[in-house]
Amino acid sequence: MDCCWCWDKQSGYDLFPGEQPHPFSLPSPLPQWPQGNGFATGRICLGEIEVVQISQFEKIWSCKALFGKSNSVTFYQPVDVPQGFSVLGHYCQLDDKQLSGYVLAARDLGSLQASENCVQESGSSDLPALEKPLSYTLVWTMDAGCNGSGYVWLPNAPDGYKPVGFLVTLEPDEPDLEEIRCVRSDLTESTEACDMIFSTTKSILSKNQFQVWTTRPCKRGMLCRGVSVGTFFCATNFSSGDDLNIACLKNLDSSLHAMPNLNQVHALIKQYGPTVYFHPDEVYLPSSVPWFFENGSLLYKDGKDIGVAIESTGSNLPAGGKNDRKFWIDLPDGDKLKNYVKCGNIDSAELYVHVKPASGGTFTDIVMWVFCPFNGPATLKIGLMSYEMNRIGEHVSDWEHYTLRISNFSGELWSVYFSEHSGGEWLPACNLEFIDGNKPIVYSSRNGHASFPHPGCYLQGSSVLGIGLRNDCAESKYTVDSSTRYQIIAAEYLGEGVVAEPPWLQFMREWGPTIEYDSASEVDKIINHLPFFVRFSVESLFELFPTELYGEEGPTGPKEKDNWLGDER
């Protein structure tokens, strides 16, 4: 294999085994958070064990695959582990990204009182929470030339225990049994492979192919208990969906004491609330929900042709239940008022915030929803040519969002999820643009209002063929600062009555009528104007576009979305 070095972008020198890279840090120092509970105290009680988040590392070994220019990774071991805490596994990351990960270290509380706020559920065993392995199994080894040989080891746990991470060494001898701890099985949950970050060969059919993956709990969402350890998973000839031989942790503290209180939530939003840039050519700007209602929006009921005016708070909307399609919201009557409301009112716009636990309460997700009264028509891109549609892609009301994920160990912004129509992506904080200290920038795409991390044109469709729906993002004078213009609409973990949910949040039906597009006719007109050598049939062209091209049911509100209770993906 080729020799590979880890390039430390921040310090500007090559790292050798034993040297420490500089991890990413936010543009501005963190403030002093308001007092209360166990948020940002550095340690989190999970019931019978207490964990700390380690983001300081020492390089162990780097390796590079036989293909690609940047497919090289470095394995790290955590350093500065507090006295009394044990390592649970090592860390791995691609070399073309600034170091920005973490691993958890743990200690067995035993008879110790970790926190007066920690409400421990009864355990199912008298065995210690942590135990050293019986031995190790060599999972993989490779000679990286001038960078030496590396050895990856899986701890062999005693009966009733599970490993939650791997160890990497430069020597062929088994690691010391004291270097790592396994966790009692009832204190763990199942974990799954998430993103593959390294593979020794390009072909998935190759024998003895070694792969490295990030991991995450199998069950995720605000009611789930799985806690990500931050370690990697690796195996030879692994297929996505196979069971993993490591686990994640489980939070047995029913109080979720490390979650921020209401004052701390406000401080977090003030510190990290993004500035949202809408495209300079955006016609369909956001508004507040009350502005939308106050300017003539109507509630319709199945079987009735006349709509009913909606109270500014939505108090007369049918609440609860499910989306049975018996009610829906529509624009006001009359073309003049209808066109006025379509364009929104950015001066009234605010972000609607849902705060919830993530990764078993070791992180906080601040989900920020933006409302636009109207979603504009799509623009098709076919090669170098773009075509604006007349109606395709239009629908009344548009709910889009982005999510800030914050470490409850420190209060540090860790990553942001950008919702992009039916999909989206998580980006670590090191890959974000910032403005005014630690506030990320979110770019809202023209007409469709999907969220993106950087300006440019994002293609929704076939990027290989250059065919799809355009998502154009750019800086402009149209902005909403979510650090000041927001309303917290839900934070269930704080208890009943702490946050008053607005009546409109309970409307589970559609915020717009169903629209069916004559897509075939409109796309056929475009195809007839294309040069012969780039023409497609309507059917084959449709296969390259997302489902938004065919028609649109009115969108449901935030509480009906999968990510309200679940994770982003």
Topology:
Layout: E1 6-8, E2 13-15, E3 43-45, E4 49-54, E5 57-64, E6 72-78, E7 86-87, E8 91-94, E9 103-108, E10 130-131, E11 135-143, E12 149-156, E13 161-162, E14 167-169, E15 182-184, E16 188-199, E17 210-217, E18 226-227, E19 232-236, E20 247-250, H1 262-272, E21 275-278, H2 289-294, E22 298-301, E23 308-309, E24 327-330, H3 335-342, E25 351-358, E26 363-375, E27 379-382, E28 385-388, E29 395-407, E30 413-420, E31 423-428, E32 434-435, E33 439-444, E34 451-452, E35 456-462, E36 467-473, E37 479-481, E38 486-490, E39 515-516, H4 519-527, H5 538-542, E40 551-552
Parallel strand pairs: 21-33, 25-38
Antiparallel strand pairs: 1-2, 3-4, 4-9, 5-6, 6-8, 7-9, 10-15, 11-12, 12-14, 13-15, 16-17, 16-20, 17-19, 18-20, 21-37, 22-23, 22-24, 25-26, 26-29, 27-28, 27-36, 29-30, 30-31, 32-33, 33-34, 35-36, 39-40
Key descriptive features of the protein:
569 residues; five-stranded antiparallel beta sheet; 5 helices; 40 strands; disordered N terminus
Q: How can the largest sheet be summarized?
A: 6 strands, mixed
In terms of per-residue confidence, which ranges show pLDDT below 50 for 5 or more consecutive residues? Answer: 1-13
- Strand-residue fraction? 35-45%
Spatial strand arrangement across the major sheet:
31-30-29-26-25-38
Approximate shape: globular
Q: Tell me the helix content.
A: under 10%
- Give the count of helical stretches: 5
Quick one: how many beta strands?
Answer: 40
- What is the total domain count? 2
Distance between the termini: 35 Å
User: Average pLDDT value?
Assistant: 88
Give the radius of gyration: 26 Å
Structural class: mainly beta
Give the oligomer, counting copies of the same chain as homo and different chains as hetero. single chain
